[in-house]
Each structure stands twice: as structure tokens, then as C-alpha cells.
């Protein structure tokens, strides 16, 4: 019987957050492991939370505005979640990013534009915003920024796919 190989994995670095709403999801998905770990004392969690905020940033000021006690740890986390982690605010941020990308006058290669759009759409998906809620607005906006020959090819391809069904 083979025994599994034991690998020594590198330590995961403690995430830091400086207040950019676009970074909240990345920060919280990592920090949530500490937050939900029952074996870590709340006082220690508070210290991890302090270390996970950038000195001089709004999140650090918020965390340090509470006395560093176990009782205040949950209050500080809830305040951060209320300020930076509200889904409605995050959806607005990512929708704004999408719109800015679409209406910007930057000349992207089509593949670069596609990659940037996909990144922002994945962020919306992670917030459980379904495509049917924004696709009717987003697609015409994207199409309006593309060169006419690309739009014609897009339409031809879309009709071919629909006809095949």
C-alpha cells in the first residue's frame, strides 16, 4: 500500500487590505479562514485583522478605532464588511468598471478587451449577479465600441449558432 507523499507547502501570506472595494473579495476570502477558525482566540484574530490592514489606510483607522479587545473584534469585522463588503456596493463598482472599460477611448486589441471584460464579468458572477440582469445593457454598449467589421462578424457568428439550435 502506497503512503501519500507529505509535501511541505509554503506558508500563505496574510492578505492586506487598503480600502479599494475591488480588492475586498480577494481580501475577505483569505481572511475569512482566520475569522471562522474556532481554535484562534478572538484577541489574536483582532491582531491578525490589524496586521491585515495597511497602515494609514481607512480600514486600519476603522479597526484601530475600536479598543483591541476580543469583544470588539466582531464589531470591527462587521463595520469593515458594512463599509467595504456590501454586495450592492461591490456590484456597482464592478458595473462601473465594465462601463468605463467599454466607453473608454483606449485602443485595446480585441483579445485584450475580451480578457478585461471576462475578468469583470467573473467578479459579478462571484457576487451572484446573473448575466440576465446586465446582458441586455452591456452587449449593445460593447458592440457600439467595436469596429463595424467585427460587429458584422459577431452578428454572423451569433446567427449561425442560433440557426444550428
From TrEMBL:
Entry-linked Pfam families: DUF1759 (PF03564)
Superkingdom, taxonomy of origin: Eukaryota
Protein name: Retrotransposon gag domain-containing protein
Organism: Araneus ventricosus
Lineage: Eukaryota, Metazoa, Ecdysozoa, Arthropoda, Chelicerata
